[in-house]
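Q&A log
Question type: sequence-to-structure
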Amino acid sequence: MLSASFKPRILCVSIYEEMAQLVRHSAGQFGVEVDVFGGGIYNSGHIHALEVEDRYDVIISQAGTAIAIQQMVKIPVVPIQITAHDIVTPLREASEHHKKQLCITYDSNLSVDIESLAAFAKLKNFQQVIYRNEQDFNNIVSRLSTLKEVAVVGFGGCVIEKAAQCGLPYYLIRSSKNSVHQAVLSARNIVDQHIKERTRSRRLNNIINYSLSGIISVNRDKTVATCNRPAKQMLDLHGKKLVGMDIGAAACPPELKQMLGNGEYTVDKVLPLKGKTLVVNRVPIRVREHDQGTIIVFQELSKIQQIEAEARVQLASKGLVAKYEFEDIVGSKNTLGPVIAEAKRYAHSAASILIEGETGSGKELFAQSIHNFSERRKGPFVAVNCAALPEHLLESELFGYEEGAFTGARKGGKAGMFELAHRGTLFLDEISEMSLATQVRLLRTLQEKEIFRIGGDRVINIDVRIIAASNRDLYAMAQEGSFRRDLFFRLNILPLQIPPLRKRKEDIPALIAHFIKKSHQGVPGRSRIAFNNDMLATLNAHNWPGNVRELEHILERAFTLYDGHQDFAALLTDLMRRHCLRQTMAGPTDQQDDYLRVPRGTMAEMERYILESSLEEFDGNKKALADALGISRVTVWKKLKELEGQPQE
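Response status: OK
Response body:
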């Protein structure tokens, strides 16, 4: 089936009208269109074919006209076949009615066949005259008027016309319907194949010319077979006709000779050329151990690096995005306003930022907001908690590793967080927990802006903006030697201090409204919860060592336990009492001694606190609790059973 975008272009040079009609009929059966030009050699049919050859894919004709056209044009010519039966039939018919037969034919193998067939048919008064050009033909037909009792046999309307003018009978050698039908079918198939080849050629040319790489192919005789546009651009050979040029010739650009080299197989060879650095791959073409040429594919090193960088950004950005912006930070103009304004100014710089603040104060919220406010917002945001991974795992996560770098290494290796954060932001949370050995490697990375994967032997350039965060005083740690001073000063170029919640309690009402909307949107009744002054006073009385995160968890607990009917103020007050009591029992967070503070009460109440708190500390393990308290597991079990039956104060 021919493509609708490529219509077959067929020309028929018809030498008699009946032939034209048969061709049109067969063309209609095959669903193709054929242009018909009436006239053989005498009417310059072959000259017409030459003049319009570029408008057609194939030409159909017959006898000498077909042969003449084949000798003149470059496109395929399909001759309509003439069988022995087609020739013998008019010859016998002419011999039955006339004493003499004169056959006028074009000089070809067909004229030899006619002589043989006439002899086979035992035609005694048969004569054949052969013409080779228009002048010969004119000389022959000029003598027709002198002939008597002769029947003219031949091909084409021109001979019919001349015979009729001279009053001579004429017998036409015609091809059968089937021969015409087969000729049209062959022409259609030739066009079909031609279109397929042309489509394939165009597709191949498009692939070659729209490739990002330069492509040059050289024949085995060292002539250039292909040189695409990128190759000419990279070699500064615009406007020069290179196809067919001998690479060994003096006129050949020296760049082509350098690209070919010795023609041997080459992979990723770095070749400085005309102020550029090219990465060249050269593959010899061998067929049965015989050299058939060479294909050279090359690219600019800078372009490869750019593509690699963009690919890393696109791959890394999937799932590695910052969700929060400065508008998501809840706080008043007096408390967080100056901090946000400072962070926005920092966002426009490429320098490292050190965010210091207590646990739960919103350090990552600020880090993500800075990223989304910066020019790197379209790049990845990669967060790493330095305290969550052991030293050896943290190093491999940060810098990546090559295949086989250590036992259990992933096949093919793994890109580290620095590579994933290329052209984006790397957030190093709790950086105070990073080991000194990893700090040394991090410092070098920040200075050189390049990394080596673990087990790797190549440098990987990176473009990463560092935001570090710590809930400890890094300066004090640097002074005492538990954190590298040089790394501290490298990170602390743009310091940002996040105030704790206890120093901005005026933000608590806004935070409550935010968490109600965030946690219970769409839950009936929850969004209508109102906080009165007594409830706010209860919350303000607490120092919030866990900061905003602690407040969020308390509210989440209250919202979850609230059933819509009970006194929410009483529920919140009781939760805060127990929460503060637990913190008092646990003692200061930095207390290293094993203390348990028990509020004064009745013996039963104090015993309850000891058992419940200790059991929670040991994750419900009664045997561990019994060992810690110095009593038997049976005693612990009995005490707990007794407490289950007692009402809780």
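Response note: Residues 502-586 form a domain with the Helicase, Ruva Protein; domain 3 fold (CATH 1.10.8.60).
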